[in-house]
């Protein structure tokens, strides 16, 4: 018999994260496009990001028939957060460039994110942006597949921190960090130290 789950954060009721999820406004609009394989992931950080940001929405799928309508939202300049050749590093908004971004974020493994780009030509045609200086991931449960790899929620928070500096969106990470800590505790300190701590190169 499955454990009762919170309908909002999708966590088991006895581990509900909703009390830690903020409701933070942003000038930037965030559109999260989640590959279906990520929707059932234990962390599902894209959902946590969408819940914590007032000006964000999350859609799950491979082909998004309404993408043209979402990208045409008036008052925003759409870009896709996707590190690739020619991607422009994000910088703070300026008075001469005051049109807020519609930041489209594919959510999935690199292979699945590339598949989303391939299956949605409108997405692939958007200007690409990337993070300039990447803060190391706080996802301590596994070794990053490559330097600079971040979970989706971390990438969104770092992007907003850059775009809307000096505003800080770190509070959006609170449920993510609690989830990581909870999994480490369930794993046991000894197991975590043996299997994860040394792999990250931590002292």
Question: What do the pLDDT scores average to?
Answer: 85
The percentage of residues in β strands lies in 5-15%
What topology, given as strand order, has the largest sheet?
2-1-5-3-6-4
Overall CATH class of the domain at 27-137 and 146-170: Alpha Beta
The CATH topology of the domain at 27-137 and 146-170 is Alpha/beta knot
Which structural class best describes the helix and strand composition? alpha/beta
Low-confidence stretches: 198-203
**Biggest sheet descriptor:** 6 strands, parallel
Approximate helicity band: 25-40%
Q: Give me the CATH architecture of the domain at 27-137 and 146-170, please.
A: 3-Layer(aba) Sandwich
Structure explained in plain terms:
It is a single chain. This protein is of the alpha/beta class and 203 residues long. The chain has a domain at 27-137 and 146-170: Alpha/beta knot. The protein is 33% helix and 14% strand. It has eight helices and six strands, in the order E-H-H-E-H-E-E-E-H-H-E-H-H-H. Strands 2-1-5-3-6-4 form a six-stranded parallel beta sheet. Helix 2 packs parallel to helix 6 (152-163). The longest helix is centred in the last third of the chain and has 14 residues, at 174-187. The chain is globular. Mean pLDDT is 85; it is low at 198-203.
Quick overview of this protein structure:
The chain has 203 residues and is an alpha/beta fold. It is built from 8 helices and 6 strands, in the order βααβαβββααβααα. It has a domain of 136 residues: Alpha/beta knot (3-Layer(aba) Sandwich).
């Amino acid at each position: 018999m499955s454990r009762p789950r919170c309908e909002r954060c999708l966590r088991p009721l006895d581990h509900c994260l909703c009390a830690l999820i903020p409701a933070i406004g942003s000038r930037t609009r965030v559109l999260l496009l989640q590959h279906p394989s990520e929707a059932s992931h234990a962390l599902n950080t894209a959902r946590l990001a969408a819940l914590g940001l007032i000006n964000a929405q999350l859609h799950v799928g491979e082909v998004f028939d309404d993408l043209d309508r979402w990208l045409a939202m008036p008052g925003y300049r759409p870009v896709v957060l996707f590190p690739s050749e020619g991607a422009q590093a994000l910088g703070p908004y300026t008075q001469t460039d005051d049109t807020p971004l519609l930041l489209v974020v594919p959510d999935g493994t690199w292979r699945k994110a590339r598949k989303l780009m391939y299956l949605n030509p409108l997405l692939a045609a958007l200007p690409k942006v990337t993070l300039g200086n990447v803060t190391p991931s706080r996802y301590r449960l596994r070794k990053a597949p490559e330097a600079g790899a971040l979970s989706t929620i971390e990438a969104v928070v770092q992007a907003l921190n850059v775009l809307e500096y000096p505003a800080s969106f770190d509070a959006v990470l609170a449920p993510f960090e609690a989830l990581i800590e909870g999994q480490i505790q369930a794993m046991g300190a000894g197991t975590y130290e043996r299997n994860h701590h040394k792999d990250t190169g931590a002292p």
